[in-house]
């Protein structure tokens, strides 16, 4: 029996069940559904901003924007030797973005895209998909501004899928699948906004969060 066509709506249902898609490589046409036994998350009150990162944010010679070029952000995330983003996944997330369920946060040096992160929103959950950095600390700056935005928008769950040493150094933790599903259920019961009305990311305020997380 032929499986149903993979659509953005089907993808959203998968996220609501706690599973997400990956390909083995850029050239792998198959989509694999992942539901790890242990899940990485970012507690929104525990992002670690080091002194050097706080100084860079206050100095802020970069510009942070959202949803200015979603496709370019995903392309930049896939621009590496090994990636799980194949053409099907790229298409699906661009379509999710058009539906208002996928967002990007970009860091620019002038007009040049030097860092960023993108993910999917559903209820009060943000599912972080990938990030990239073309300048030192650009992805850390993106995460700092992203978490500030998620807090302002009323999100309660930031899913990182897996826990890497890099994410752990910034405050991410690993929880069991059962606890993740419980948190996900609670997050799906409410509403949040990636672009909350009146919100402006003041670099000084973002950097100030260091005193709350150190």
TrEMBL record:
This protein's name: Leucyl/phenylalanyl-tRNA--protein transferase
Task performed by this protein: Functions in the N-end rule pathway of protein degradation where it conjugates Leu, Phe and, less efficiently, Met from aminoacyl-tRNAs to the N-termini of proteins containing an N-terminal arginine or lysine.
Recorded catalytic activity of this chain's protein: L-phenylalanyl-tRNA(Phe) + an N-terminal L-alpha-aminoacyl-[protein] = an N-terminal L-phenylalanyl-L-alpha-aminoacyl-[protein] + tRNA(Phe); N-terminal L-lysyl-[protein] + L-leucyl-tRNA(Leu) = N-terminal L-leucyl-L-lysyl-[protein] + tRNA(Leu) + H(+); N-terminal L-arginyl-[protein] + L-leucyl-tRNA(Leu) = N-terminal L-leucyl-L-arginyl-[protein] + tRNA(Leu) + H(+)
Gene: aat
Subcellular location: Cytoplasm
Primary residence: cytoplasm
EC number(s) from the headed UniProt entry: 2.3.2.6
HAMAP family: Leu_Phe_trans
Organism: Cereibacter johrii
Molecular-function GO term, any one: transferase activity
Family: Belongs to the L/F-transferase family.
Enzyme class at the top of the EC tree: transferase
InterPro entries xrefs: Acyl_CoA_acyltransferase, Leu/Phe-tRNA_Trfase, Leu/Phe-tRNA_Trfase_C
Keyword annotations of the record: Acyltransferase, Cytoplasm, Transferase
